[in-house]
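Treating backbone geometry as a discrete language has practical consequences that deserve illustration. Part of our work consisted of pairing the sequence of a single chain with a tokenised description of its backbone. We regard such an encoding as a compact summary of how the chain folds. The amino acid sequence and the backbone structure tokens for this protein are reproduced below.
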Amino acid sequence: MRPSSHWLPYPAASLVALGSLYLLLPLACRYWLGWSSWPGYVSDLGIGSLLLLLSYRRPLLAAPLAVAWALMLLGNAELVNAVGRMPEPSDLKYLSDPQFVSQSTQGSGIRYPLLAGALTVAVLACLLLGRRQGPRLSRYAYALPAVLLLGHAADQYLAPSENDQWQLFNLPHKVLAEGTSRARVAIEDWYAGEESGLPPDIDGLTKLDLSGTPLLPGGGKARNVLIVTLEGIPGAYIAKNRQLIGSPYAEDLMPRLSQWAERSMTTPDYVLHNHQTIRGLYAMLCGDYEKLDSGTPKGVELLTSETRNQQCLPHQLSMMGFRTHFLQGAGLRFMAKDQIMPHMGFQQTHGRDWFKNKPYLEFPWGMDDKAYFEGALKYVKQLRQNQQPWMLTLLTVGTHQPYSAPKAYLERYPTAKQAAIGYLDDAVADFLAGLEKQGVLKDTLVIVTSDESHGLENVRLASAWGFNLVFAPQGDKLPAVKTGVYGHVDLTASVLDYFDLPVPDNIAGRSLFRDYATPREIMSYTNGLLRQHDGKVFTECTFQQVCRRYESTRFIAAESQYLGRVTGRQARLVSQRADLLDQSITGGQIGQRYQFANRERIDLKPESRDEWADNLIGAQYLEMPKGTRTRVTLKIEAVRLDRNGAALRLLTKEFDRDNSLAIPPLPPLKRGESIQLSFDFDNPETRKAFSFHLLGEGHGAIRISDFSVVTEPLPPELVAAQEPESAMEAAAH
């Protein structure tokens, strides 16, 4: 006798369980998270009904589909909450990473435990109840997901929405849409045939423009310059910016910094060109667009140039008699800032190890913001004891994910992220007050800005919206609001222009201390969206390679008039302009030798807890072109170790995810000895965002005397032999 349910017979129960997992929960989750939009609901219904049909009466297929679907739903919600972007499918491995889970919300587990619990129950119900064969469904049932998905595609093609991606798609649908778009573009290109022509003009993006009327004729009266860079803070957190842009965002997470903004010259339409701290620092300090893709950061490429680095702001100011200093709260070795910042021209570069004051909380990346700014204030006091003018660049780290804050702040705010932001707000406001008390604001140009934006849900363009507050001794002669579109690429030209110093001809940008009668061109790539603005028309290109055009005099605007979409060759011009901006400083990655060892003593920890924060080298986010071989050589010396020596591990990642490269294991490092290792690997396809992670555990210290990475072309016969394998792999994906 077939077992039965008290409520439903088994066939019906199986269908209800599948419907709960694939239809009911996604719709309820979308509403609960505040992601309501009818394209999003259509996406959930279309993909959900398709998966339901594929799973029904197929128990062997149902199990992996159910687990994958649940992980995608939960992973999407967690990552959007953490960093304001949709995940790639392989990002979901982080949900099985205890380090990520424990640190994401101050050790309290995942952000949405109720969603995780509901999904777990639904998956188990599907697995248990799905073992029974239910009645057959009509073959025409597959028409429902087909109609829904085709309708969604037609709507987004004809009138694409500017809502965030997670409001329009679920994760499987996004992956499907990306593949479909690539196929569509390939067909369009084939149909149109090859078209020859000159590359698009990017002079408006790369030129130096000092044609505007100076706000301070003859330059400013400050002697020094202080640049305060806050980790990940978007422009929407400044109340005055929200008001001027007309943003509906109402949360006042940084009220004290917003009060200071009332005393500054603020630029509400301030553009951040990309994600990632090292890329933001390069754009700010070197007057150049960082790469708008995932290639080797130009800051890393700068290490192989002895000319381009001399145009960077620290180098320029040091030639004019300034003492130049860089101080950050994190360790310097991550992203090779221990080498990049001195190469830019900083005479003194310090990180976490410089601070002697005790932190107020344990944070894996470095000093918490309160302790950091207390140390920074002492640093400024030391600089003022010398009569020589100085430049100091500060970089915080406390608002980097995983977010952390003292208990009092965690109790005050609903999320750890908001608590960390509130903690930073108090810390930076106290720091500015301390500067005023020391008299720094009377003789120093102070600029407070952000390295990148972590973005905000339901805030238009938030991932590209930064802020820039200027405090100057002649603040009464500066406007309270700087109109016009500006961005990080303008900072170097602005500071040199303020001091009435020569500006190198080959840097880009406009000066914040000039008024311009004509609009300008500017670009940005954040949250998977490539954006271009020519002063009149704002163009935004999606991952589907469809570009929306808007009439707008601003880049950052709460709303603008939609003009229609472009695709095909016309849309491709936007990406071609970005490709030209991405051109390497060094002329390409092939043949470049990057040396990431600095030969300084490194004190080991007894235990490595974080593969990023505890990394001993700065070889991250590199690019290896297709058809090349990368050779790595390293030498590690024992400086002072106990009898147990040191355990060393070398890991590799691509796009922050573990890869399958076979890296030779490092033997234990014994007292008084050294380790030398050389290995290579082939790149049948281009590798981007490739990172090395060297981790060490032990009692004592080591020295890395060599860590070089060289990428060379493969012999033609090896390239030819790898092409069939690459083609098979591409077909499989």
